């Protein structure tokens, strides 16, 4: 009975939300709690996280979202309200959602390559608010309950971890292989842990000492600080057997110069995972003989599939990945301007926003 009353009141209720109006213009406002349709679900956000994509969106806007829209896309919470036609979910359930869902009817979906879906629905935004509406296509595919043993902040790692699961699957890492990861940001540190689960020896590079120290604590075999005096490719090779290069090299930065260096770090026949997205229109140069005679495999990796989202949730639920050390700070939603300042200045790894 109490739940019903609360449900009725919700539609007239106001909530706090961080609204994006234009690049560098995000305002904390009181707006209406989103109304949901019969196939949709309303989630009370308990924890949200910042992400590199949010940083880019803040500075440049986002091609898929027309302002004004509520900012943020990584979150976990409790179901507040369920549409009349939704099965399997009830108010009070702890849930986390990926930010997209594939159409399941295009060529790519039918071919099992759902991250390449021609009409990938990738429009879930609104995590930096008290409530978020989950669209029907995500409810039916990528809205997942999680156990009480996983905190809301931990569950909110689902989306980035799903992308990393995708990358590690494409890298086909085998037991005892050497993997080099360029970039010890949140993505690189997730890659480190998933690669280790695959039995890899991991070398990781970054500009920041603090990030590398954390990488060591999380089990990196060797960390390398990038400096202008050192040739990072040679340094990496030194830590591989007979200096032949790594079996797998992963780019988790998104800079053309790092893309180019990454492919010089693998052995003949090695696999290169190009994960970090560069600015649109960026070009890199490749040594064709190197690619040809060394049979190097280059693989671009983007986004995730519902199967990978489920695997990522299993990793979180089974406590196989440590995500708490990746959260540098926590702020209430009312301090969103500080969160944005930190994000802009690359201060810390991930920042938790608690409505
Ligand atoms: Zn993200
Ligand atoms: Zn599709």
Describe the fold and architecture.
There is one protein chain. By secondary structure, the protein is of the alpha/beta class. The chain folds into two domains: 2-157 and 323-354, Alpha-Beta Complex (Quinone Oxidoreductase, Chain A, domain 1); 163-300, NAD(P)-binding Rossmann-like Domain (Rossmann fold, 3-Layer(aba) Sandwich), CATH 3.40.50. Helix content is 31%, strand content 26%. It has 13 helices and 16 strands. It has helices spanning 2-10, 52-60, 107-110, 136-142, 152-155, 158-171, 186-197, 209-217, 232-238, 256-263, 288-293, 306-317, 336-344; strands at 14-22, 25-32, 41-49, 69-70, 74-82, 94-97, 131-134, 143-145, 178-182, 201-206, 222-225, 246-251, 266-274, 297-300, 327-332, 350-354. Strands 3, 5, 6, 7, 8, 15 and 16 form a seven-stranded mixed sheet that branches. Helix 11 (288-293) links the parallel strand 13 (266-274) and strand 14. Helix 6 (158-171) packs across helix 7 (186-197) and helix 6 (158-171) crosses helix 12. It is globular and about 70 Å long. The two termini are 26 Å apart. The structure holds zinc ion (2 copies). One zinc ion is lined by residues 102-104, 106, 108-109, 117-119. The site of one zinc ion has 6 residues, from helix 6.
């Amino acid at each position: 009975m109490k739940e019903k009353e609360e449900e009725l009141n919700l539609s007239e209720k106001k909530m706090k939300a961080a609204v994006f109006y234009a690049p560098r213009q995000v305002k904390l406002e009181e707006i209406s709690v989103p109304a949901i349709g019969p196939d949709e679900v309303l989630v009370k956000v308990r924890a949200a996280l910042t992400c590199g994509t949010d940083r880019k969106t803040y500075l440049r806007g986002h091609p898929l979202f027309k302002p004004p829209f509520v900012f943020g896309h990584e979150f976990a919470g409790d179901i507040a309200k369920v549409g009349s036609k939704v099965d399997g979910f009830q108010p009070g359930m702890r849930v986390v959602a990926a930010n997209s869902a594939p159409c399941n009817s295009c060529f790519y979906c039918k071919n099992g390559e759902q991250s390449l879906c021609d009409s990938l629905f990738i429009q879930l935004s609104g995590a930096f608010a008290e409530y978020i509406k989950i669209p029907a296509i995500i409810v039916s595919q990528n809205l997942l309950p999680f156990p009480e043993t996983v905190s809301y902040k931990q569950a909110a790692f689902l989306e980035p971890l799903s992308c990393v699961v995708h990358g590690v699957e494409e890298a086909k890492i085998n037991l005892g292989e050497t993997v080099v990861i360029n970039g010890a940001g949140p993505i690189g540190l997730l890659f480190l842990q998933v690669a280790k689960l695959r039995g890899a020896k991991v070398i990781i590079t970054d500009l920041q000492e603090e990030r590398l120290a954390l990488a060591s604590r999380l089990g990196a075999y060797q960390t390398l600080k990038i400096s202008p005096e050192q040739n990072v490719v040679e340094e990496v090779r030194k830590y591989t057997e007979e200096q032949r290069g790594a079996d797998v090299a992963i780019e988790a930065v998104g800079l053309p110069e790092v893309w180019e260096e990454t492919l010089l770090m693998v052995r003949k026949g090695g696999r290169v995972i190009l994960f970090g997205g560069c600015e649109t229109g960026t070009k890199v140069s490749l040594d064709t003989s190197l690619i040809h005679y060394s049979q190097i495999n280059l693989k671009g990796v983007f986004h995730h599939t519902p199967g990978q989202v489920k695997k990522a949730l299993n990793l979180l639920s089974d406590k196989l990945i440590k995500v708490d050390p990746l959260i540098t700070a926590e702020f209430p939603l009312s301090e969103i301007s500080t969160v944005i300042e930190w994000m802009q200045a690359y201060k810390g790894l991930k920042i938790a926003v608690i409505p």
